[in-house]
Design a protein that fits this description.
With 48 residues, the chain is mainly alpha-helical. It has 2 helices and no strands.
Length: 48
Amino acid sequence: MQNLLQRDLGSSLLSIAVILGWLGLFFVFLRVTTILIKRILELIFKNS
């Protein structure tokens, strides 16, 4: 914790923003893939 406080505040905020951005991208990607899988499964089971 001391190491985090001794660093520059701007670089700490930047690293937090980058981590949050990657998490956001990951969740968007996860949501898109689940929607695609749901649509594909609906198409498969609707035909059979």
